[in-house]
UniProtKB/TrEMBL annotation:
Residues 42-205 form the Aminoglycoside phosphotransferase domain. Pfam families: APH (PF01636). This is Phosphotransferase family protein. It comes from Streptomyces monticola. InterPro entries: AGP_Transferase, Aminoglycoside_PTrfase, Kinase-like_dom_sf. The lineage of its organism: Bacteria, Bacillati, Actinomycetota, Actinomycetes, Kitasatosporales. It comes from the Bacteria.
Length: 248
């Protein structure tokens, strides 16, 4: 009998693996609706949906291995990173999906959330004030108008699977929708800045590297409290706090 392994689990949702089947348990069926809809529309490889019985969505495992993991060096080739860039460009060039996504929050919403998180990081003593202040200034470049595209919305490096130099699947679409293309590219390369050039080579034109760096700061500042409150350690080597320090 196949063993049950916990891929990720926190108070909002959990993902279990049983053999070649992933079981996503989420009491927020709106997130599952977004995921199912986005995978049907996305012009890139996505997991096969096996069945859905709320609150569970069953997906077939995609072949290959993750492009990398946050906090660990990636063993994938430069060609695989470039292929990821090309796949993201294909997604961004696709017709817009009907919903706004995580990468499509308004500038006012983002600025208010960012200010609130920066205040909490300093007053709670989680991060030094100078580190927060500097990264808040860097993040400002991301707070500008953008042309909406079809975004994944949570394009962590662990969500892109490769076999050799080929993309075999992109997983976890619950944050997908209309948003900023550079948010996706920044999320993919967060903690793997050395592969940004490879991703850009595959993606093509239209990339402002200063905005990519701004999103690295912005995403990290916004993520620290959530990670702490859900039992994760953003200060692990190579993770969000290290990304913020690297921006100094």
């Amino acid at each position: 009998m196949d063993e049950v392994s916990v891929v990720v689990a926190h108070s909002e949702r959990a993902t279990l693996r049983v053999g070649d089947v992933f079981l996503k348990v989420d009491t927020d069926q709106g997130r599952i609706d977004v995921e199912v809809e986005a995978m049907a529309l996305a012009p890139v490889p996505t997991p096969q949906i096996l069945w859905r019985r709320p609150p569970v969505l069953a997906l077939a495992a995609v072949p290959g291995a993750a492009l990398g993991r946050l906090g660990e060096p990636s063993t994938a080739s430069p060609e695989a990173w470039a292929a990821a860039g090309a796949a993201i460009r294909t997604l961004h060039d696709a017709p817009l999906p009907p919903r706004p996504g995580r990468a499509g929050r308004s500038l006012d919403e983002l600025a208010q959330e960012l200010d609130g998180e920066c205040e909490w990081l300093v007053t709670s003593g989680v991060l030094p004030a100078d580190l927060v202040t500097h990264n808040r200034r860097v993040a400002e470049a991301a707070l500008r108008p953008w042309a909406e595209v079809f975004t994944h919305g949570d394009l962590q490096v662990a969500h892109v699977f490769v076999d050799g130099d080929d993309i075999t699947g992109i997983i976890d679409w619950s944050e997908a929708g209309r948003g900023d293309a550079l948010y996706d590219l920044a999320t993919l390369t967060l903690g793997h800045q050395e592969h940004l050039g490879d991703v850009v080579a595959g993606y093509g034109t239209g990339i402002d590297l200063d905005v990519i760096r701004a999103w690295w700061s912005l995403r990290s500042l916004l993520g620290v409290r959530w990670l702490v409150e859900h039992g994760f350690d953003p200060s692990s080597p190579g993770c969000e706090v290290d990304v913020l320090r690297s921006q100094m």
